[in-house]
Amino acid sequence: MSALTSRLRGHTRKITGPRQAILGILRRHPHPLTNKEIFAALPRGRCDLATIYRSMHLLEEMGMVKRFDFGDGAARFELVGEDDDGHHHHLVCMRCAEVVEIEECSIRELEEQIAARNGFATVTHKLEFFGICPRCQR
């Protein structure tokens, strides 16, 4: 946890107990979590939901977490490693909400073509895939 807390200190932010607890939850969980899932994973009375919302907003501004939208109206957050740009995609089961991380991204060339064709600079994208997982197909 020391690398995460030093990142907070590097941004001149306090290392509060709730922030440490939130970072710990995100660090241990392999997939993006909603604010309510983070709240449920914390020990009872550790912090309130409003503190989690504020903390996630701050951590996102600092580039320590990345926000994902799986189309259900709930923002999800995932910890971003120090030397990681956080760019990856997810495959989400439409029945049970299982999430599979997809590391490869073959859209970079398409980004460049779209940027050149339209005169844009610094084009990026967000892409999530949805389907039915093997378990739900049975």
Highest-level CATH class of the largest domain: Mainly Alpha
CATH homologous superfamily identity of the largest domain: Winged helix-like DNA-binding domain superfamily/Winged helix DNA-binding domain
* Secondary-structure element pattern, one letter each: HHEHHEEEEHEH
What helical percentage do the residues reach?
A: 40-55%
Major sheet size, sense and barrel closure: 3 strands, antiparallel
Q: How would you describe this structure to a colleague?
A:
The chain has about 140 residues and is an alpha+beta fold. It folds into 2 domains: about 1-80, Winged helix-like DNA-binding domain superfamily/Winged helix DNA-binding domain (Arc Repressor Mutant, subunit A), CATH 1.10.10; about 85-138, Ferric-uptake regulator, C-terminal dimerisarion domain (Dna Ligase, domain 1), CATH 3.30.1490. It contains 6 helices and 6 strands, in the order ααβααββββαβα. The chain has helices at about 1-10, 15-30, 35-40, 50-60, 110-120, 135; strands at about 35, 65-70, 75-80, 90-95, 100, 130. The strands form 2 sheets. A 3-stranded antiparallel beta sheet has the order 1-3-2. Strands 5-4-6 form a 3-stranded mixed beta sheet, with no helix packed on it. Strand 2 and strand 3 (about 75-80) form a beta hairpin. The model has no long low-confidence stretch (mean pLDDT about 85).
